[in-house]
Amino acid sequence: MSTKQEQPLVTIVTVHYDQQETTYEMLDSLRKVTYPIFETFIIDNAFPSSSPFVIKEKYPEVELMISDKNLGFAGGNNIALKQVKGDYVLLLNNDTEVKPYFLDSLVALMELDKNIGIVSSKISHFYEDNTIQYAEASPINSITSRGKHYEYKELEQN
């Protein structure tokens, strides 16, 4: 990764169902991201009482996809995954706010070792200052497809 033109495209996918203000907060944080090459897909999961087109009006940079029925989290993500162009895909919950530099380190790690198949950043609780929700996990067991999570509810060491 020597120049910005050589950096891989990251596709960010999020499922939206209700919680319009929450989705706006996530999109506002994505507007501050320092990583230069990413696209954002929002899948509206057929929430019946609000227009998803308001998202596109406020955030014209996003790709808005509308499901005609609520397919749940996995089904909503699958709609976008059929159309993404990114070298890497990030499934991001719509109630997440990101730090501006969060993608830089994730992409750098993936580029460093092509044997890595999945990464995650440290996740902090929003309403509990300096408290970790997720920071790391053991390797995933090939039989059970599970790993052990570490540092849950521990205080961050800044």
Explain this structure to me?
- The protein folds into two domains: 4-115, Alpha-Beta Complex (Spore Coat Polysaccharide Biosynthesis Protein SpsA, Chain A), CATH 3.90.550.10; 122-158, no CATH class.
- The strands form three sheets. The protein has a four-stranded parallel beta sheet with strand order 3-2-1-4. A two-stranded antiparallel ribbon has the order 5-6.
- 16% of the residues are buried.
- With 158 residues, the protein is of the alpha/beta class.
- It is built from four helices and eight strands.
CATH topology of the largest domain: Spore Coat Polysaccharide Biosynthesis Protein SpsA, Chain A
> Residue share in helices?
10-25%
**What is the number of helical segments per DSSP (H or I, 4+ residues)?**
4
Distance between the termini: 28 Å
**Assembly form of the protein:** single chain
Tally of individual domains? 2
Strand order of the largest sheet: 3-2-1-4
Topology of this protein?
Blueprint: E1 10-16, H1 20-30, E2 38-44, H2 53-58, E3 63-66, H3 72-81, E4 88-91, H4 102-112, E5 123-124, E6 132-134, E7 136-137, E8 149-150
Parallel strand pairs: 1-2, 1-4, 2-3
Antiparallel strand pairs: 5-6, 7-8
Notable characteristics:
158 residues; alpha/beta; Spore Coat Polysaccharide Biosynthesis Protein SpsA, Chain A; 2 domains; four-stranded parallel beta sheet; two-stranded antiparallel sheet; 24% helix
What is the compact description of this entry?
The chain is an alpha/beta fold and 158 residues long. The chain has helices at 20-30, 53-58, 72-81, 102-112, and strands spanning 10-16, 38-44, 63-66, 88-91, 123-124, 132-134, 136-137, 149-150.
